[in-house]
Amino acid sequence: MELKLIQMFMENIAVLAAWFRLKYPHIAIGALSSSSPILNFFNITSPYSFNDIVTRDFRVLSLSAILLFCFWLFLNRKAFNDRLELGIRNSMDADYLKGWLETALVCTAMTDYPTPSNFLNPLPAYPVKQMCKEIDDPSKGDDDFSKLYSAANIYYNCSGSVSCFDLMDDSDPHGPDGWSWQRAIKRSIFPAYKYNYNDTVANCASYFGVIPRPTWIPTEFGGHDLEEIWSNIIFYNGLRDSWSGEGVLKSISKSIVAIMAKTGAHHVDLRYLTSEDPERLQDVRKKEINIISGWISQYYLDLAKSSS
Description:
By secondary structure, the protein is of the alpha/beta class.
């Protein structure tokens, strides 16, 4: 009996699901590629889209949050000392604090789910909105750092059980540092940074001992030119997900379908079903199920024809 698969994966693994369908169509009937940055390659999408989307997620809810985060992430070591009297010893200490804030921003925006979750850290429903509420809380007056600390607590300490944070503890497997090559930034909540591909090459060589091949994946698997070689793939993207800027956002053919959710977060379609799921999320899942059911039905029709 032949083995046939329907693949349903999320994040970077979802990229592999789509590629597997391309390379082994006799094994994979189709693939659901959820929140996959499949177009995040050289000269295909903007290197700035990730952090631009994080910025947009906060900006639509609170201009105060944008201004406050910008101010603190731009501060240098001396400014941190002057403002907080923390006794920060060097620029590395300041970077740890800014990195702590940045991780909270990036990961909360990515997992802005409509229900409580525990994907990266325990979070309430709509955590970006909860962060902005902390910053806009009038009871905190002009104490900017108290506002930032309370906002970051939404990500790091939703349960309220942590009394102290070790900012130099880099053991968090979900921090954005592993994707640092993505974080070329401009016109956003974060300090401006000019993307330079040569920097990417140098970093890869230094950290991993490899030299990137920037045109290999678009040549091997196709960039935007997917219609002639791909079929039976669903690309889901929630537009509040910072990875969506590198995803397929338009249907390419009848069998290469893009499903977008304007207020959707990171692979929310493949999360556990709950009674609190909004109707728009339920509709996305129904659409995916209908498409996949069509693939399976067509497979059995084709099988019956070939056997007769």
